[in-house]
């Protein structure tokens, strides 16, 4: 990316000059675009990673509810993951992709723990790690799968509700500056403008 962006900028500014600029300014522009091209992929990837983690976090409680239903219906973990991935393909495609890939790995990897570790490595989320630990302990100790998943789903849904309430509580403080800068001046103009104009007319008539 830095070589492509810097090379394209050098060609446009030096070989085929699209603007009549001094040499120092053109060199500075080329250097700036080269540096920007160096950091641009990291910024794009980090932004995509943040959006994907947010989508996974928001879709996890619904996915766990569907897993509980599938487990209560008697499906195995592999079949339940495939069914949930098919049901959530439209609502949360990120979660559907992860569950589908995990179900495929569970079907051909001899060590099932490795498939869960791969899920942890791909997502890098504390909530997913909690689900993986629960599934591993359920498989190891023979505890009821649907009960453990139901507890996790309730917990994650409560956390999502708490985050929503926290954002709602921060909303008045966030809107204070736009209110002062944009809404109050317009309100003052609408309310006080006629009175000021009427007063000016009276002074002029006097």
Key descriptive features of the protein:
206 residues; flat; mainly alpha; single chain
Question: Can you walk me through this structure?
Answer:
With 206 residues, this protein is mainly α. 87% of the residues lie in helices and 0% in strands. The chain has helices at residues 2-15, 23-72, 77-87, 93-108, 112-123, 126-141, 145-205. Helix 2 packs across helix 7 (145-205) and helix 6 (126-141) runs antiparallel to helix 7. The longest helix has 61 residues, at 145-205. The chain is flat. 18% of the residues are buried. The model has no long low-confidence stretch (mean pLDDT 85).
What's the gist of this structure?
By secondary structure, this protein is mainly alpha-helical. It has 7 helices and no strands.
Share of β-strand residues: under 5%
Number of helices: 7
Determine the fraction of residues in helical runs and give it as a percent range: over 70%
Please mark out the parts with pLDDT under 50 across 5 or more consecutive residues, or reply none: none
Shape assignment: flat
Biggest beta sheet summary = none
What is the radius of gyration computed over CA atoms, rounded to a whole number of angstroms? 29 Å
Mean pLDDT: 85
Report the end-to-end length measured between terminal Cα atoms.
72 Å
- Helix and strand content put the structural class at mainly alpha
Number of strands: 0
| H/E element sequence | HHHHHHH
């Amino acid at each position: 990316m830095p070589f492509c962006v810097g090379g394209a900028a050098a060609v446009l500014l030096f070989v085929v000059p699209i603007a009549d600029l001094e040499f120092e300014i053109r060199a500075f522009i080329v250097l700036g675009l080269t540096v920007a091209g160096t950091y641009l992929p990291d910024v794009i990837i980090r932004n995509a990673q943040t959006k994907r983690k947010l989508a996974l976090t928001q879709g996890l409680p619904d996915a766990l509810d569907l897993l509980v239903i599938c487990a209560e219906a008697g499906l195995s973990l592999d079949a339940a993951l495939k069914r949930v991935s098919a049901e959530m393909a439209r609502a949360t495609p990120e979660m559907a992709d992860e569950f589908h890939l995990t179900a495929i790995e569970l079907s051909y990897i001899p060590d099932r723990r490795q498939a869960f570790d791969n899920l942890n490595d791909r997502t890098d989320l504390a909530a997913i790690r909690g689900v993986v630990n629960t599934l591993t302990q359920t498989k190891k100790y023979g505890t009821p799968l649907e009960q453990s998943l139901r507890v996790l789903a309730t917990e994650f849904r409560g956390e999502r509700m708490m985050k929503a309430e926290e954002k709602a509580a921060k909303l008045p403080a966030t809107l204070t500056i736009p209110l002062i800068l944009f809404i109050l001046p317009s309100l003052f103009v609408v309310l006080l403008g006629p009175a000021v104009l009427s007063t000016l007319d009276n002074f002029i008539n006097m």
